[in-house]
Each structure stands twice: as structure tokens, then as C-alpha cells.
Design a protein that fits this description.
The protein is built from eight helices and three strands. It is mostly helical. The model has no long low-confidence stretch (mean pLDDT 82).
């Protein structure tokens, strides 16, 4: 299974899970008198739309290069991540606003059975986070990582709701707002996660140097090619699930231009063979007596 197929499969899993949970949380929050659960349902609903965006971004970013996009379409993925962050910020704002409004409004205590539903939700969302984060690391997908953090933030909002409802039930009448304070905390946590998702996507768009380990791996692999004496400059930029490399390779000054040309192609082939996530590799040949 290719990285793209793994990422797409994980995204379908996310969409199906969020759809079921949004319905469960919404009904449980309405009939169980818990705004924290309703807030949780709002976030899960936004997660459904953001997962569809992630799915589109993964499919579009993996389209092959064409005449208008000679470097491929990989930059679409961090752009989609920005939209996903926008969904998160919007949901956090709505949850925070409604929580503040409900804190000063008298309402019934949440139902005790909502705690059982929240317990099951917390376990499921944490499992979903770990699964998608594993897939994002395998595929090097920033948008899939953003979707994974949606699940983690959902788990934390559910934990906050669990604590808020438990406190309200234990303390009794007069402490109904504990549920709303829990929802407000959840909104703040969602905003914090929004930054954590946004930062690496911004680094990708700006070609920030975040790939020191990959640079070292490329240098080691390059030395396995007979005729390559060393490497000098190595620049890497990420686009989608691929890494594009500009590498200066040192060869003997005594070989012909054709021999240097052939060496560069052998080096390209070797790098792509041993590091499958590489996209285009541009090799610049440097003579050893130049240094």
C-alpha cells in the first residue's frame, strides 16, 4: 500500500468516526442537559468537514507534475492544513462564546449517564489520535497530522466535560455551571492545538530547514555510490508527502564531463532507491580540486 493510500484510508476512518460521534454527543448533550457534550458535538461536526478537506488535500497534492505545475501539487497540503486550523479556531470561538453565556444562565444538572458515554468517547478518540498520528509519520503528511490532533483535542474536550459533569453532580444544585467551565477550558485547549498544527505547516510553506536527520541520511547514502568522494551543500524542501533535494556532490576533477553526468544519475537513482519519500533530486557536480 502506497503512502497516499494509507493516508486516504486513515482519513475515511476519521470521517466515519467523527460522524458517529457528533450524533452521539449531540443527542447525549441535549437529553442529558450537558452543554460540555454539546460543545464536544460542535467540534466533532467541524472535524467532519475538516477531514473532508484533508482528504481533498491528500488526493490533490499527490497529483503528478504537469506543464503548469512542474514541481507537482504538494504545496496544496499545507494550504489545506491552514483551512483545517480555521475550522478549529471557529469551533473554539463558538464553544467559548456559548460557554460564557451559559455560565450566568441557570439550567438543570447534567444527567449521570452522560459520564458513561464520555468515558467511551475518550477511549475511542485517543485511539483515533494514535492511529492517525502513526499514519501521518509514515506518510509525512502534515494535513493528516492536523486531523490526528483534532482527535486529541476532541479527547481532551471530552475529559474536560467528564470532569465538569462529575463536579456538578458531586456538588449538586448551585454548581451546574461547572459543566460550562469545562467547555470553556476545552475551547482554550483547542486554540492551543490550533497553533501546534499551524506552525509546522507554515514552516513547510516557507521552506524552513527542519530536515537535519534527512540531510545526514542523504550524505551517508551518497557515499555508497562509487566515484562520489563527498557532499557539500544539501538543501531540502517538503511539498506534500515528498522531499525535494538540491545536492552538491564532490567527484574527481580528472573524470570527463560525461563520467560526471553518469555519476550524478547513479547518485539520483541510489538516493531514490534507499529513501523512497524523495521526489526530484537535483545533483550539482563539484570537482575535488575546487575546494
Amino acid at each position: 500500500m502506497t503512502n497516499e493510500q494509507k493516508a486516504i484510508k486513515a482519513t475515511y476512518f476519521s470521517i466515519a468516526g467523527n460522524t458517529c460521534l457528533a450524533l452521539i454527543k449531540g443527542f447525549a448533550g441535549f437529553f442529558g442537559n450537558s452543554y460540555a457534550l454539546i460543545a464536544d458535538a460542535i467540534e466533532s461536526t467541524t472535524d467532519i468537514f475538516s477531514s473532508f478537506l484533508v482528504l481533498f488535500g491528500i488526493k490533490y497534492s499527490n497529483k503528478p507534475a504537469d506543464e503548469n505545475h512542474p514541481y507537482g501539487h504538494g504545496r496544496a497540503e499545507p494550504l489545506i492544513t491552514f483551512l483545517v486550523v480555521g475550522f478549529l479556531i471557529t469551533s473554539a470561538t463558538i464553544i467559548g462564546y456559548e460557554s460564557i453565556a451559559n455560565i450566568n444562565t441557570s439550567h438543570d444538572l447534567p444527567k449521570s449517564w452522560t459520564l458513561y458515554i464520555l468515558g467511551a468517547i475518550i477511549i475511542w478518540k485517543e485511539y483515533s489520535f494514535r492511529l492517525l498520528m502513526k499514519r501521518s509519520k509514515q506518510t509525512k503528511s502534515t494535513s493528516l497530522a492536523a486531523d490526528a490532533w483534532h482527535h486529541r483535542s476532541d479527547a481532551v474536550t471530552s475529559v474536560a466535560a467528564f470532569i465538569g459533569i462529575s463536579f456538578a453532580l458531586c456538588m449538586g444544585k448551585g454548581y451546574e455551571s461547572a459543566d460550562d467551565w469545562a467547555a470553556l477550558f476545552a475551547a482554550c485547549f483547542i486554540l492551543y492545538n490550533s497553533y501546534k498544527i499551524f506552525r509546522p505547516a507554515l514552516g513547510e510553506i516557507m521552506d524552513e530547514n527542519l530536515n537535519d536527520d534527512l540531510v545526514e541520511e542523504i550524505r551517508i547514502v551518497a557515499l555508497k555510490v562509487p566515484g562520489i568522494l563527498g557532499t557539500e551543500k544539501c538543501y531540502i524542501r517538503k511539498a506534500g508527502m515528498r522531499y525535494y533535494v538540491d545536492l552538491h556532490a564532490i567527484v574527481s576533477a580528472k573524470i570527463s564531463v560525461k563520467e560526471g553526468h553518469d555519476l550524478s544519475h547513479r547518485l539520483q537513482d541510489k538516493l531514490k532507491e534507499e529513501i523512497p519519500q524523495l521526489g526530484n533530486v537535483l545533483i550539482h557536480i563539484e570537482p575535488d580540486d575546487y575546494h
